[in-house]
Amino acid sequence: MRTLRNWKAVSAVVALAAVFLAAGCRKAKTDVFPESGMVAGWQKTGDTRTYAAKDLWQYIDGEAEKYISAGVVSASTADYKYQDKLEAIVDVYTMSNAAGAAKLFDANPAKDASRVPLGDAGVAHAQSVSFRKGPYVVRIVAYESAPETQLALMALARAIEAKL
Amino acid sequence: VKHTGVLVRSVEEVMKSRREFLKCAATGAALMGTHSSLGWAEALGPQKRSGRSRVVVARDAGLRVQGSQPDEKGVLALLDKAMAVYTGRDKPVEAWQRMVPRGTVVGLKVNGLGGRGIATHAVLILAICERLQRAGVPAGNIIVWDRNARDLAACGMSINSDGGRVRCYGSDSAGFEDRAVQCGAAQLRLSKILTRDCGMVISVPILKDHNMSGLTFSMKNMYGVVDRPFLLHANNCNPGVADVNALAAVRDKVRFTIGDVLASVYEGGPVFSPEHFWRPNALVVGEDRVAVDCTALDMLDRKRVEEGLPTLKGSGREPKYIATAADAMHKLGTNDPRRIQLMEV
């Protein structure tokens, strides 16, 4: 009887651990943000900020539900500057799985987007580059438009992709 | 907050003469019907008791942009034009003087939630601060505020609690009331900036498409005065937006909207979406927050159609909270076009 109880307890712990690992324990990749100088011309101008799913409203209130329904685990963000010409923000969303990343990424196809060879799927606009790779969705947005904006964004995106 | 003295420009320079002003207002006005039922505009000037809510849309198609900020003189002139038409006074400073009772602390609730690319513009905030000071409001009696320091930074503002200058801080440092208030089904705590620091508030939102509510402008800006706005997101923020605006402190203290439509996102909001970025170069001002939002909705929908997108209603994101705000329970203003006196200049 006692052996049976122990076995049940062990099984419960193992099951809980499995659920925890599968669903909620995926950690945000905060080390994917290139430091200053790692990508030519780019400087990281602030600390990386990370928000757990439950706190995502603090960062993107109103948008948060869209990410939560797709299974977001966390979001990390950092600011960048390119050669004192343009400023940009990088967001990395860690989803619970690749299907969630695809759901999120495919939700809002914008017209005038051009496909780019990044991760599992990538698109670029004049002032932004987005891609998904496995459970990650990355969006890089420049605040200004300059002749070199898209090339610069692509260089930063490739560096991030390589770290995922 | 920077000292705003450099922005000073005489109203006479801006409007030149009453005759020119009247000509401008008369040729630009597009009356759709309407009323200022809430009383404040009557105190501002000779606005007739027409039973209509006045909303002014002031535009400057030639507004120059330096970096990410529109030209400061141009924005000040646009603000003066909007206020002059709204109040019917050719000297806007006189209108500002009547607007703010002596000794009142005035809060400017700005909106930087969308990040640097789509936040209330600093040049507009500073222009309002400038005009308030010209009207006799001491700098320290003006508080520029939002949810937190990050949102204020997105607007281009820096934190300042020195009472000798325009103050600028977020609810993250001021805190929220300990006692929660009932807001629809939610228990929420109000920012102490609203409840304690400000005698009156001018809502200074920026027009954006919104993933859930459809539109974010004057009324939705008030989600930034409570501690847990996500509790009001159900059912496309309806009746959440109306409920939060109906809270006594919000209803009574938020008396006017100076809406930033200098830039906007017509899709992909509320965050910055450069793919859908647009510069209407306009301000929308009014006392009736429901009528102001109705006007903004029309502007956003027109742009969406122009870009080949369905209207917000057509895309399943009709901001139904606007009608709710006008209903017999909330009574926050009117959404009836016949009762809105729209003046476009």
Write a concise keyword list for the protein shown above.
heterodimer; A: 164 residues; alpha+beta; 8-stranded antiparallel beta sheet; 5 helices; 29% strand; B: 345 residues; alpha/beta; two-stranded antiparallel sheet; 14 helices; 15 strands
Can you describe this structure?
- The complex is a heterodimer of chains A (164) and B (345).
- Helix content of chain A is 35%, strand content 29%.
- With 164 residues, chain A is an alpha+beta fold.
- In chain A, a hairpin with a 2-residue loop joins strand 6 and strand 7.
- Residues 18-25 of chain A have low confidence and may be disordered.
- Chain B is an alpha/beta fold and 345 residues long.
- Chain B is built from 14 helices and 15 strands.
- Mean pLDDT of chain B is 86; it is low at 1-48.
- At the A-B interface, helix 2 and helix 3 of A face loops of B.
What letter string, H or E per element, gives the SSE order of chain A? HEEHHEEHEEEEH
Q: What series of H and E elements makes up the topology of chain B?
A: HHHEEEHHEHEHEHEEHEEEHHHEEEHHE
Number of helices of chain A: 5
State the shape of chain B.
Answer: globular
Number of strand elements of chain A: 8
Q: Biggest sheet of chain A, in brief?
A: 8 strands, antiparallel
**Beta-strand content of chain A:** 25-35%
What would you call the structural class of chain B?
Answer: alpha/beta
What does the main sheet of chain B amount to? 11 strands, mixed
Helix content of chain A: 25-40%
How many beta-strand segments of chain B? 15
The residue fraction in helices of chain B comes out at 25-40%
| Number of helical stretches of at least 4 residues of chain B | 14
Rg of chain A (CA only):
19 Å
Q: N-to-C terminal Cα separation of chain A, in Å? A: 49 Å
Task: Tell me the Rg of chain B in angstroms.
Answer: 18 Å
SSE-based structural type of chain A: alpha+beta
